[in-house]
Amino acid sequence: MTELLDTKQPYRARLDATQNHLAEEFGETLRLAVPLMLTQLGQIAMITTDLAMIGRLGEDAVAAAALAHTVYFVSFTFGLGLTSAVSPLAAQAFGAGDVRLIRRSLRVGLWAALLISLPMMASPLYGEQILLTLGQMPHSAAMAQHYLNGLAWGIAPALGFIALRSMMSAVNRPQAPLWITLAAIPVNAALVYALIHGLFGLPELGLFGAGLATTLVNLGTFLAALAIAGLRKPFADYHPLARLWRIDWPLMRQLIAIGAPISFSLLLEYGLFSSAALLMGLISTTAIAAHQIALQVTAVLFMVPLGIGMAATVRVGHAFGRNDPAAVKRAGLVAAVLGLALVSALTIAIVIGRYQLGRLFFGAGSESTATVELTATLLLVGASFFIADGLQTIMGGALRGINDTKMTLLFAAIGYWGVSFPIGWLLAFHTGLGAVGVWIGFSIGTFVYAGLLILRFRMLRAKWRDEGNGPRSRA
To answer: Which of 129, 324, 337, 344 has its CA 20 to 30 A from that of 378?
Structure first.
């Protein structure tokens, strides 16, 4: 009996150690994810505030702003993928204890933000011509250009802020960008209102003023983050701004190799949702309205898995940097389980309150009954999409932590354009399901995408285990 107890002791010790590691991983992931979620929600709050202020100028101004955002975000999204690659590079450096690489990662991120923003500004600055080519009304295109003329100059500082935020999160300090963002929300609201209407001695600039205010706020948040990175501990200990004038071309190539597939993956996703809006336009105006509100709810909900996905990039990157395959697996697993639990709980709340959400946007009048009903139906059908979208975001973040982004791009193409779009189109127009069919296509394609990402993460982990090599030996 004593021998039997002795043989069980190592197993129990391993079990206790595993449970302790998992509990620690949950805590660290949450500690990173919560500030990242709130920072993203703060960004949405500023966009929503801008639209609310612009709404005072009339429906034409709101429509013009929507068109302007469509042009702007195509450019911004491409730069976003490149600068977000700072996160895995800096996280791996932090895990390996390489202070110099942390500094180099931020430096190439800031240079990438500047260099990519220069050609990317061409799209917003020629937005009117682009919109006219796409068949938009001349009056709406001209109004959108006024907004873009103010907005375009904010691309570089906005991308620079993302690079700084990525470095700060990579060293386990995501709180500073959150406080900067929270402080920027009221400043943004006041500045947008003042420049639109010409208050406090400022000129009355209308839509151009709204765009200019956003640019000024982007510049302010970037400068605040830059100052904190250079002057406040623990960031100052890394000397992140040393030799900032030098471009590290070898690391820049690595940043592009990781970040470019992220950019194209995001553009594939953005293109799918833009195309879905066009499909809704072929169905009915009710379908367009319900689709937009359902997507807005999705955008808010998406901030939860997005924050966890960013945290997964950092936690997996830390383990990857110190060449710890077991910790890589644990970080990915914990992020997926945590995200699935939180997104499932929020999805249940949305399903229960789907009619109330519809009435919140459209009112309770009889003329809006059909739109509220369709919005509620889309939110119900979208329950599976919300969960799948959360999983793909988190597992994509985990794969970024080990620099595996090229296959993610391939999987995005398969899931979104090989599955989601054709199935949504067939169901919408050949089975009579209409808008509901488009959302069913969303769900199926996103589940395929998420499943491929999970299999990819498991496959890489199995290779490291079977070959007896750590992850960095295969990098």
So the answer is: 337
